[in-house]
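About this split. The held-out portion is used to measure sequence recovery: a designer receives only the structure tokens and must propose an amino acid at every position. Recovery is the fraction of positions where the proposal matches the reference. Here is one held-out target exactly as it appears in the evaluation file.
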């Protein structure tokens, strides 16, 4: 049972879980930039072995729910700070927009990934938060970066990019996220 401090999942988190591979893949997940660990608690309840890594410690990490949930401090630019050298499923939600060198971070995430990498970043300035350094759109126009650069950086692996929302009001306010799925089992010829 989830501790009371862990809120329900929104559609962005549900979309991430729906993106997990189901064919011939284990149940170990690395959540890079896990924050309070909300998604990790839900995944542990679903039977996944979860390693959550963030740059900061959060009090919610101290709530022990399962032996299948481990949190630690790590640096996306120093993979030696991570609790495991690689894992089948890696996810990284709402992190790359904060990093000046997001491309290097993406390459490090790919290095950690054995099967599937799942990333979310905001569409344009959907969530114009302090600390966002990067913004993407479909074409790279109007001063935004082209979201298709993820495909180029992840080559030769197949990459799927879709737009998702978090809450019903997000659509009205044009607040959307990109859901980027990179599968290392599938390669472009």
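Reference sequence for scoring:
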């Amino acid at each position: 049972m989830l501790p009371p401090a862990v809120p329900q999942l929104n559609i962005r988190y549900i979309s991430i879980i729906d993106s997990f591979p189901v064919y011939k893949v284990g149940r170990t997940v690395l959540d890079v930039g896990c924050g309070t660990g909300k998604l990790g608690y839900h995944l542990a309840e679903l039977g996944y072995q979860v390693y959550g890594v963030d740059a900061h410690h959060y009090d919610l990490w101290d709530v022990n729910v399962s032996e299948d949930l481990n949190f630690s401090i790590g640096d996306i630019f120093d993979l030696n700070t991570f609790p495991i050298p690689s894992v089948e499923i890696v996810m990284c939600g709402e992190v790359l927009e904060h990093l000046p060198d997001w491309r290097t971070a993406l390459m490090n995430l790919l290095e950690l990934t054995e099967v599937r990498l799942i990333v979310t970043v905001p569409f344009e300035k959907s969530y114009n938060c302090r600390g966002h350094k990067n913004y993407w759109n479909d074409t790279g126009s109007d001063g935004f970066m082209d979201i298709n650069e993820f495909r180029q950086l992840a080559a030769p692996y197949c990459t799927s990019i879709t737009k998702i929302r978090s809450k019903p009001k997000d659509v009205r306010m044009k607040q959307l996220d990109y859901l980027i799925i990179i599968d290392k089992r599938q390669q472009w010829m």
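Annotator remark: The first helix runs from residue 11 to 18.
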